[in-house]
């Protein structure tokens, strides 16, 4: 029966891979599939992986003394009995890969109800919180004491914690928190006994050998007891990000895919992040498998997908100095089938989406943020409003203030698409087309506005370039297949914004790039380059791309890639 009010608790799991399972596959499965599937659930606000430091040698874990520990806080233990979590516990939610991998792991899983805690206000931080990325990267030392008690012994042990353990651990300079838990009401033991777990957390500078002994001071005679010491080595976000991929995997719902060795970008992950207001943002993360590799974020224009950056990335990664990067692309609001959010879409919302993507993927700071058109003003606004999270930005073919009459102009374009009334079967949030009769047709932008748009975006000579003709056709198809309801909502981003007042005081690194054939924008963007940071006595870099219009990364991908790469690597 569910409790009358939410019961706080813990999912506490020790794991030891058997000799038949490679550690690479173990981490790939756990970091990309098992863990994120759980931290996506609203009642699991965090998830941490710890590695034992009390073993006699490297990778010396055994079934009796496993090397790996995973801990997930739970805000409402009853949710473990509900469908979203239970779906993950059996097929199809529990995939065949998970079944195969877990058959090669010794697993000890406990659901525990919260009993009590003591916190050091000076040192404790929520390591999963974005504002504590620095502390999380430094890590955490953790000790656990597992006891098997009779129900009558529980109160005695709790008194011992308060009167004996806490006075000792509170004297240790690196002490952060002590918490204790017992067998959850959800899963009582058949023998009537109680699993009791005491956890002490310390800063990474704490020497585990200097910690006070605990077992010797137990107040009751306990036949089963185990003390362990661990260090934090991985913190889950709400999305998969582990690019050291061993084997391809697709989630049962088709939303998450891991793609090993996708030339020329290394491996790739495609999945989604759900924002605080319920918008679902599909993303693609690719490149270096180093979990601390610098991250470059690319933001597409209205009516396009992240595919506009394909040529750019081919040239970007062809330079050896750029192989160190991870690259994050995503579908901004206004692209795919409706995601359920009701928030008005503004540039501020789009900028917040960038930050929430970084949070979900545990990226403290993007090394670079590059956007074009709507993505360009998103990049500008994100850098101006979240300067600590963006090291450098390049805004392409955009403005710092919405042009007068923008709402009417876009309204006329929407009317063109509405009049045409084209529908397509869109298969997913990624905007894939489907031929299945089971897929409901969706209103899309259609042919007339798509043709008008690409004619406006690309310079006339590009239509005579055999290499660019298929690229233009590909971009046109992106426009054609864009969800009309989402276009109608997403384009509101461009109606009313003004960031000119924030330009002079900007202290970070920024640059502006524009196609020479993009109307009046070259002149306006050159002016922006002189205004950015002007109060600090700075001038931003400015790049005019000859032979290009509104999407220079499509028409001149090499020039744009070289500029961005050089700009990011410059001091």
UniProtKB/TrEMBL annotation:
SUPFAM superfamilies: alpha/beta-Hydrolases. Pfam families: Abhydrolase_6. This is AB hydrolase-1 domain-containing protein. Residues 297-562 form the AB hydrolase-1 domain. The lineage of its organism: Eukaryota, Fungi, Dikarya, Ascomycota, Pezizomycotina. Belongs to the AB hydrolase superfamily. Signal peptide: none annotated. InterPro entries: AB_hydrolase_1, AB_hydrolase_fold.
């Amino acid at each position: 029966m569910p409790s009358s009010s939410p019961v706080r608790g813990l999912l506490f799991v020790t794991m030891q891979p058997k000799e038949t399972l490679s550690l690479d596959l173990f981490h790939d499965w756990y970091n990309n599939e098992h863990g994120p599937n759980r931290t996506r659930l609203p009642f699991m606000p965090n998830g941490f992986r710890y590695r034992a430091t009390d073993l006699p040698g490297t990778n010396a874990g055994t079934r009796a003394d496993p090397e790996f520990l995973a801990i997930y806080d739970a805000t409402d233990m009853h949710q473990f009995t509900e469908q979203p979590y239970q779906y993950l516990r059996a097929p199809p939610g529990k995939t065949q890969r998970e079944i195969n991998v877990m058959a090669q792991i010794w697993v000890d899983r406990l659901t525990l109800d919260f009993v009590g805690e003591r916190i050091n206000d000076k040192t404790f931080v929520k390591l999963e919180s974005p504002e504590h990325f620095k502390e999380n990267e430094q890590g955490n030392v953790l000790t656990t004491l597992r006891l098997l008690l009779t129900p009558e012994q529980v109160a005695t042990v709790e008194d011992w914690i308060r009167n004996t353990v806490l006075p000792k651990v509170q004297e240790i300079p690196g002490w952060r928190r002590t918490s204790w838990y017992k067998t959850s009401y959800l899963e009582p033991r058949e023998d009537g006994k109680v699993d009791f777990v005491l956890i002490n957390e310390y800063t990474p500078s704490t020497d585990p050998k200097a910690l006070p002994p605990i077992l010797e001071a137990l107040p009751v005679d306990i036949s089963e007891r185990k003390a362990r010491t661990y260090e934090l080595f991985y913190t889950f976000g709400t999305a998969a990000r582990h690019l050291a991929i061993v084997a391809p995997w697709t989630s049962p719902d088709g939303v998450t895919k891991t793609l090993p060795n996708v030339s020329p970008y290394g491996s790739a992950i495609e999945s989604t992040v759900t924002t605080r207001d319920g918008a679902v943002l599909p993303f693609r993360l690719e490149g270096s498998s180093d979990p601390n590799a610098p991250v470059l974020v690319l933001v597409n224009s209205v009516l396009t997908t992240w595919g506009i950056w394909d040529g750019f990335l081919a040239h970007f990664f062809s330079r050896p100095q750029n192989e160190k990067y991870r690259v994050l692309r995503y579908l901004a609001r206004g692209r795919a089938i409706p995601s359920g959010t009701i928030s008005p879409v503004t540039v501020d919302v789009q900028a917040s989406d960038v930050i929430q993507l970084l949070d979900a993927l545990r990226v403290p700071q993007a090394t670079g943020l590059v956007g074009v058109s709507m993505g360009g003003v998103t990049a500008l606004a994100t850098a101006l409003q979240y300067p600590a999270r963006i090291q450098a930005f390049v805004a392409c073919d955009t403005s710092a203030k919405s042009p007068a009459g923008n709402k009417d102009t876009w309204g006329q374009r929407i009317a063109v698409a509405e009049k045409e009334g084209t529908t397509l079967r869109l298969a997913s949030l990624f905007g894939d087309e489907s031929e299945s009769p089971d897929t409901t047709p969706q209103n899309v932008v259609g042919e007339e506005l798509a043709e008008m748009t690409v004619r406006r975006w690309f310079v006339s000579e590009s239509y005579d370039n055999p290499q660019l003709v298929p690229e233009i056709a590909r971009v046109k198809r992106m426009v054609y297949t864009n969800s009309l309801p989402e276009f109608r909502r997403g384009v509101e981003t461009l109606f009313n914004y003004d960031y000119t007042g924030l330009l002079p005081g900007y202290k970070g690194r920024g640059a502006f790039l524009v196609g020479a054939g993009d109307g009046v924008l070259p002149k306006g963007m050159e002016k922006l380059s002189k205004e950015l940071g002007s109060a600090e006595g700075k001038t931003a870099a400015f790049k005019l791309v000859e032979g290009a219009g509104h999407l220079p990364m499509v028409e001149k991908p090499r020039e744009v890639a070289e500029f961005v790469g050089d700009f990011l690597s410059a001091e």
